[in-house]
Each structure stands twice: as C-alpha cells, then as structure tokens.
Amino acid sequence: MAEEQQSPKSKIADREEQILAFWQKDNTFKKTLEKKSPKGEFVFYDGPPFATGLPHYGHVLPSTIKDVIPRFKTMQGYHVPRKWGWDCHGLPVENIVEKELGFKSKKDIVDHGVEKFNASAKETVMRYADDWRKIIPRLGRWVDMVNDYRTMDTSYTESVWWSFKTLHDKGLVYEGFKSMHLCPRCETTLSNFEVTQGYKELTDTSVFVTFPIDGLANTFAVAWTTTPWTLPGNVALAVNPELQYAFVCITASNAPELPAGNTYIVGADEAILKRVFGKESFQFDPSAKVGSFTWNGQAVSFEAKKGVLGKTLIGQRYRPLFDYYAKEGALQNRDHGWKIYGGSFVTESDGTGIVHIAPAFGEDDYNLAIQEKLPFVQHVATNGTFKQEVTDFAGLSAKPKGNPKETDEKVAMHLKERGNLLLAVPFTHQYPHCWRCETPLLNFSAPSWFVKVSSMREKLVAENKKVTWVPKDVGEFRFGNWLAEAKDWAVSRSRFWGAPIPAWRCQRCRAVRVVGSIDELRKGTTERITKVTLLRHGESMKNRENIMDDSTDKYPLTHDGKKRAKESAERIQKEGGADVIFASPMLRTKETAEIVGKHLGMPVSIEEGLREVDSGDWDEKKIRDPSVKEAEEAYYVLPSEQHYVTPRGGTGESWKGVEERIMEAFYRLLEKHKGESVLLVTHEGPIIYLEKALKGLSLEETSRLFKEIQFESYAEPITLYFDHVTNKLVDLHRPYIDDVLLSCEDCAKKTGAGRDLMRRVSEVFDCWYESGSMPFAQAHYPFNHSKRSSFNPEHGWLTKSSGFPADFIAEGLDQTRGWFYSLLVLGTALFDVSPFKSVVVNGIILAENGAKMSKRLKNYPDPLEVVEKYGADSLRWYLLSSPVVHGEDLRFSEKGVDEVSKKIFGRLDNVLAFYLLYADSSGTTRYTLHATHVLDVWIMTRLNQLILGVTDALEKYELDKAVRPIGEFIDDLSTWYLRRSRDRIKSDDLDERLHSLATLRYTLHTLAKVMAPFSPFFAEYLFDNVKSKSEKVKSESVHLEEWPSAGKVDEIKIKEMEEVRKIVSLGLEARTKVSIRVRQPLGKLKVKSDILMSSPRKRGSSLSPDLLQLIQDEVNVKDVVIDPTIATDVALDTTLTPALMEEGQFRELVRTVQEMRKKLGLNPRDEAELQVKAEGLSVRFIEQFEQELSSIASLRNVVRAETLTEGGLQQSFTADEIVLGLRLSKE
C-alpha cells in the first residue's frame, strides 16, 4: 500500500517558523527579560508536566494561557521570569517502566532490583524532553527550558526535605495508621485528592447477610454491604443507639430460604423493611405490625415484633460468618470481637440500619475499632489478594481489574451455601480507581506519614478567599468546599521512584529523627558523606585584561575581586563553614583562599592539583591576541571530542588532562578528610571538568556549563556532597539512601552506643507533595544563599519578598484537587500565606462529538498537524477566545481553527497587503498622523476603546473577553474602515492619501502590540511590516515594545458610526428586496428619525454631513434625508433616470476593467492600455467617462480601435456592443 502523502506545510506555518528562527538567533526572549522593568517583578509559577509523552491539547491550552499573561506583563514594564520544570517522580513514571519491563506486581520490581528499576525510571522520565523543547517554542510560548528544574534533582529533593522537617518541627507532620484507599497493583496508599481523580461507574454485587445471634435461637442480625470481599474481616456489627429496631418474625412461609420461625433484626423503619424483604411484592400494616411479601415467587407472612432502641442491642454477641481468625486464641482483643456496638455513623438512609464492621477496610470501621479496642483482622494483603489463612478464598484478588465483582460473587455464593445470604442484588455506583493504572482501589487501613491539614482548615479557607479565581465559582465552591472538609494528607507512598521520606527510625529504641538537609545527613553518618565547596577565585587583573596565564606570582585580585571573596566567606560561614581549605598555587586563588580562611579562622593549604589550565604557547597572551587568534579560532571550532583531548596552545594541557588531574587531587584529598567539610579554591575550567566527571555530563553539557550564570560572577561557592560508599555524588534516591545509617542520639545518651542504629523508613513522597514544593524547591531554598537567588519569602517593613507568592498561575480544572491544593497547603503551612494570588482554571478539551479525546479512537486532529496547517497563532486564538479558558469544556473543532485563520489572520493579512501596496515605496514614514476625517477619527477612538477593553480584561485574567474584541476590531478595520477609505488611500490628493495611510499605519502598528500576547508570530510579522526605516533599527521586536496606552474614547463617535452602519445595512437590505444591484446609483434614501438612538446626542437629531456621506457612498444613493413620516425604518427611491442608469453602466465598466487587470496580474501601480471597439452611442459613452475611467483603473490611455491588437486580454461588455482589450502599457 502506498504511503499516505503528508499535507504540505502552509505558508503561515512557514512564516511562523521563520519568525521563530529570528527570535532564537536574536535572543529576543532573553532581551525581554533583560530590558528595563520599572514596575518591578511579576511572579509566575509553571506547574511541572511529565515528559513521558508528547504534548497534547491538555498541555497546549494551559501552556498558551501561561504565555499570554507573562507577555502582557512584560510589555507593561514588569520583569517576568518563567522557568520550565519537569515532574519526574511517582506512579505515572513507575507505571510506564513496569509496562515496558512486563511487570505485573510490586514483587517483580523487588526481584528485578530497585537500583535497576530506578535507573530505568530516570532514563524514561526525560525521554521526550527534546521533543518538548522543540514543540513548546513552536507553539509560540516563551519559557526558559535551558535552566529548567527537575523534581528528581538532588537540590530539589533537599528543599523538599527541608519543608518536611519544618512541618514536622511545627507539629504538622505525624506518622499514623488510618483507613485510606490502596491501589493493590501499585501496592501503595493514595491521598484523598488522588482518589477523587479516578472515580468510574461500576456495577457491584451488594449482599444482605444474616449474622446468627448467640443465645437467641433462629435469630439473625441483617447487615448490607457493597463489598462482600471484606466479610471475612468482620469483627463487629454497629447499630445507631437512638434508632428503632424491629425483630421481624416469619410467621408463615413457602420459601425455604426464609423458614417460619426465623427472626431477623433490622431497622424498624418501613423503608428498611421494604428494602430488605420487598424485592418482589410487599404489604405492611404499621398499626398491626404485620405484613406479607413474596420471595422467589413464594408467599411469606411476618410480624414486626419488639420495637427496641439500638442501644438495647449493644453488647449482644453473634457467631462469626468466617472463623479463620475468631478461632485464634492469640488474636489481640479477641474477647471484644463479634459483638454489636453503637455507632452514630449508622443511618436509615440505606442498608438495614446495621453495619458490618471490618476495621482494616473502612474509616468508620477503623475509628470504632480504636474506640472499642476491637480485634484487627486484615485478611487481604497489600497486593489485594486474600491471605493463605483465608482457606476458602486464598490467593483470590479482592477486586480484580478485569472483573471487579468476580470475588464478591464467590463470597456471596459461599454464604448462600452456608445459609447466611439473604439477598444479593446488583448495585451501580461511582467507585474509585487508581488515577494512574486504573485498578479498582481498596479501602485499606495502613500506616502512612501525614500532613495535619485538618488543623489548618480555617487558615486555608481564609487564604483561599484572598485569591482571585477565574472562574470565581471554582475557587469559591469546588475548591473552597474541598478545603472546608480537607482531611489530613497522606504524603508517603510505599513505592520506589520518588523523593525519599527523610525519617530515620532507631532499630533499638524506635526513636524517629527527621532530617532536613544533606549536611544534617552528613553529620549523622560516620565518615560516609563529605561536603565539598568549590570556589572560583575572585576577579583578578588577569581576568580584567583577558590574559591567558598559569603563573603563580602574577595578577592579584582586583578591588572587586577582594570584595566578592569577602562576601563568599560570609556565605560559606553561614552555610556551615569548612574544616579544611585547599587552594591552587596561583596568586589569585591564594589571595581568595586567605580572605576566606581569615574570616573562618582557618589556615590554607596549597594543592598543585587545583592549579589553572596550562595554555602552552598562549600563556601571557591576551584572548584573541593577533599572534594567536588564528590558532585559538581553529581550536574552538574543533569537534567536541577533539577539542577535549587537544592541548591548548600546542604545548599546554588538554581539558581531558585537566579533568584527570583535578579528579586525582579530589579523590586524594577527600580520602584524607572523610566526613568533613572541604573547601577547594580553584579556577573556572578545573571546576567545570570536576563537575563533568562527578555528574557524568556529556561534552555538550560541559560546554554549556561555561556559559551558565554560575560563572558570570567570580567567587561563587558551589556545594557538592560526595558519598564514599558509592564513590559518587550523593544520590538521595532509593536504594542508595536506604543504606545510609545514622547514629541515634537517644541511645548514645542512655547507653553510650548509638552509632549506625537508625535506618530510614522505606516510603517515598507523594509526587504531588514534590510538585507542590516547586516555588521554593526550584530555587533550592533555603540553601541557595546567592544574591541571584530567585526566591525569598521573607518580608517586613524593611524587606520585600522575591519570587513569592506568585502573582499568577494557571492549570486545568483537575488541578483543583492536585497542584493547586498541594501548593496552597505547603505554602500556607510553611510561609503562612497562599503561594499564589490569581489563578486561571481552564476546562477540558473534548473531541468534536463531545467524547473524551482518545489516541486509540483517533477522534481528534494532532495539535502539531493543526499548527502545520493553520499556524500556531490560529490554534492559540481559537482556544483563547473560547469558554474553555474559564473552566468550561470545549468540543474541539478544526473548522473553528480554520475560521480563525481566515477571519482573523487572513482578513488582517489582506489589510496589511493593501497598506503595503500603497505605502511609500522608500520605506520611510513621512505620514503625519492627522486624524480629521470622520473615518480616521472613528477608527482612532475604536482603537482606544480596544486598548482599554483588552487591558481591563487581561488585568482581570478574563482571556476570552480580551481576545474577542480584537476580532471585532479587525472586522471593523477590514470591512468598514478600509472599505470606506480605499478611495482616499488611492486618491490623487497627496495630503488625503498620506493622512489616511498614516492613520492605517498607526492603527496596524498599535494593533500589533495589542495582539502580541495572544498571537506572537503574526504580531511580529505585522509589526515588522509597518515599522518605519528608523524603527527597523531601534525596534527589533514587537515583544520588546511597551504596552500601548489608550487615548480618549469618544462614545458619541462610536455610537454615531454604529447608527450609520445600521442604516447602511437596512438600505442594502432594501436594495436586495427590489433586486437593484449596489453598483446602480439611486436618487434618495429616506431614514426614519426614530432609529437614530445614540446618546448623549439628542434622540432623533440628524447625523453630520460626513456621516450622511458615508451612507450615500455605501448604499450608492445621491441623497440621504431624515423623514419621520415613513412607515418603515428606511425607504429607497427606486426611480431610475437616464443619468442614473448611465452612471450605473459606468460602474459596471469600471468593475469589468478592474477584473481584467486582476486576471492579468497587474498591481495598482502598473499602468495599462485599454483598447475599445465600439459603435454608435457606445462611443459617446466611452468618451464621456474616459478620463474618470483612466484615473480609477490606472490606464495610461484609452484607445478606440476597429480591430483589437493581439496580446493582453479581451472581453465583451454590454451584450457585445463594446469589446475591450487590455494590456500592460509600454513606456
């Protein structure tokens, strides 16, 4: 089968790619970050996506929203850093790896090896990162994807550790045992908001089960459950102490399942009786307490005797349905089991009024078990299978993914065979599934680490009320109500690929220690971890003069260099100081080390291995010195591998040699100072190649290090931690962190021996905790003490916070119980304030038929194909102008994108083309803005109105309300202003032509700025084409421009033009009704005064002559009069005089000649020759209009001829009475 032909890339897509290439070459985005920002900082947080797949519409939409606001704020004069991030940990990544490795259970991972599994996860997590780095910019988004943050980075995890310890110290973290939801496939508990993301409709088997009462013959308590698989774990029954209960005695029965003489205890409410016994027919006399029903077609009579309160049943024993655990004498609290207890959670609304209690599988159950000291029976393992002691069901999955009710039905059948099943009925309900692997969850009591959100509810609700939510109801109701009922957050997961919970437990005394930093970890170990601080020397005269040199006695520090060294000394002391200091033998490094050593009160040792790179013949030469310039340039263009091994300056060192030298010194020095804090003062090159070796960087990544910000400033400390067991930098992931043992201070105090007694707990963090940490963790807070640190939450009378809180964030509706929630909880708990001020919440994009978008069904167009076809701007505009930007769902329609492409960008492109056609060909702007014509005045006030409206909407984050008026303005500009201004722009009157062009140019120039946040590509294209020659030098990009300020809006002018256009519309409609084409002039249009409604102009007053002239021109009438006596809104005088008919014929002639010009491909500046073959009256007609025709149709001359010259184009006019010939005029 032949391969499908891919649709060719559109012209608009080609143009966008050219603009993208310009931005990248020009570093335009970087320039927007570096330009002056008089309004200060605008803080934006970017929620991290997973890079385990390609971007889809769920990414395109929020990414577009996230691009609009920062662009707008940048143009307003704010500095808006936006840093990309990657979500790297958690079940989403683990599930992908498990599928690829063919694993079915957690045991498969353990058997495979955690180290190998996590290595695969690390490789997987950035699999599509390069694709994202291409696609996101192609969508028009500007964000720093080079200096990105990754939740798996050691620095990020260290900040997560700090937050956890801080919460622990505040009493907001505890280790507990609670009933939660467990994914049996992933074998980990989930947080309550993770559970809400996976509800699906299921039809389960619910059962009414009979429990034999001890001491009462043939008497049974009846309980209802939708989870029959939990019944082997039953240890109690619960009743509501204040509810009435009935003893339902079967007085007569033909149904063998319900023999006469049996008594059933259920709630006394008639609705319960009918629920339990009325599956077929049911009759009941409440006064006599007797009734009847049919059971499997057999008649049964009953009497509801002994109405009692539930509290009288409390303490009554019953016989277990299953005795797997009841027969165990060693079962803790066994004597408290298999009794009836009181519980206020029992209601009459469903079931029987009696609840079966299995403490291991329900929140109310577990709480009652704690209260009453019930035995704890957990007959299902964390993998969801019945344990071996449950002999009748051993090994069965409690809730099989393929058939969730299979085991329930087997339990029901077992109970039926034993006579304990009263009834089994289907029950359809919303059931929670794992948000990642879609396995049905189990309610399961398990240990976990919790953040005590319940103690923060009031504060969270109060902080949320300060946030601006778009739409408002999402924050007020959906999110606000969730916060008001927020439960403690289970933040630990019994998994592998995640930031480890930093808690260590003593194996002897069980004391727990929570660690908040790697340095704290180092100090708790026994010479396992060494802290290494790398410090480049301060600025020296060598650096200032750009000299290559490795001599030991030249080039001291400059004044600035000494100052920076002192600042670094203070920072190093703040970060814990150092135990030993080693320095390169060069003068600049020795001076730097001595300044630091003096501040710390420590001596400095010289280490040859830390010296500067030997540049051979280039030593003592300035960079780019004429004598070495050619050799230098040749060296720097060598391929990476060759550059790495080639000696500098011919006889000097290669970078490979530098790397080997400094690594030898590094290992040697650290071997002597295990577990200590070591400061190495050296040079830029040796530091970079030390990092290359320790971090396993590629040569390309190493090359980028030279350009990174950490080396833009001298004497900037870099802290690393080295693990002497792995012989690598400290990796906080499992399994390495699991082997780090800490000393127990409690045991040391009590027994004098506490070394290596504490082992880390096995859990890792919920990945939502990690993503919620991004405001501070991306900046490595509080460990990054650099002046360039982007995050400082401290604020007061004399200090101002930076990087916190965010002025703006945006994500989808699903994040109300995801990222938004984790951000708010952690931000408020740590810093006592909401970490964001404004939120835009987008809805969900569905397929065109309203179904969920599905790769399998291919029910939606690929976003990249849409971009190739219509351009990224069209897709952005389509999304931004829809209700999806304020929380509503959108049925995606490719036709909608196509319509945007044509009606917005196609239409505006035509306006631009017309402008360029008539603009001064020299490219200068000698047009002075002088808006006096009624159309110019109107379009200028409309432009001011647009600027005000768009600005106001953007300030309120109402994106659709910001976008739609631009489309309306473009329609006004194209279909009214330009339509009515064409003749002025073509006019022979120079002033009129230039003034109209000046207005059009200014309008397009300003419109480009207004459109820039929404359609960055087209705005750039438009701006570039209407820039003056001088602007092309100083105005590189529309995105470096200031946001336009609005002038005065004249509402009267706008209203008047609305009236004019309304009258025109009515006039043209009247023409259509009488079938008179618009090119045929008419004598008069009467307008009823009642339709002139503008205010504050007096109702019914006449329009100005200029406005009336617009009506005349557009409707093509000789006069417009106001007449209050006409019956309709407008009335046309349809009398056609000979003069009017002749003028109409002339207009047809003009149209014909213009069409001929178009067919010949002539532009307005091309002069043509028109040959006319005519006889009789037609000759007079041509002569009468010859001059006017020549002017309008750009004709050099009109020639009458008996025979038309060959060449050009020939066409008949007015039923062959006139034959026209048109060709390009020759000079």
Q: What does this molecule look like?
A:
It is flat and about 125 Å long. The strands form 12 sheets. Strands 10-11-12-8-9-6-5-15 form an 8-stranded mixed β-sheet, sandwiched between helices. Among the domains are: 89-125, no CATH class; 242-313, no CATH class; 529-724, Phosphoglycerate mutase-like (Rossmann fold), CATH 3.40.50; 1054-1136, hypothetical protein PF0899 fold (2-Layer Sandwich), CATH 3.30.2320; 1139-1224, hypothetical protein PF0899 fold, CATH 3.30.2320. By secondary structure, it is α/β, with parallel strands linked by helices. The model is unreliable at 1-6 and 1094-1100 (pLDDT under 50). The longest helix is centred in the C-terminal third of the chain and has 27 residues, at 959-985. The protein is 39% helix and 18% strand. Keywords: Aminoacyl-tRNA synthetase, ATP-binding, Cytoplasm, Ligase, Metal-binding, Nucleotide-binding, Protein biosynthesis, Zinc.
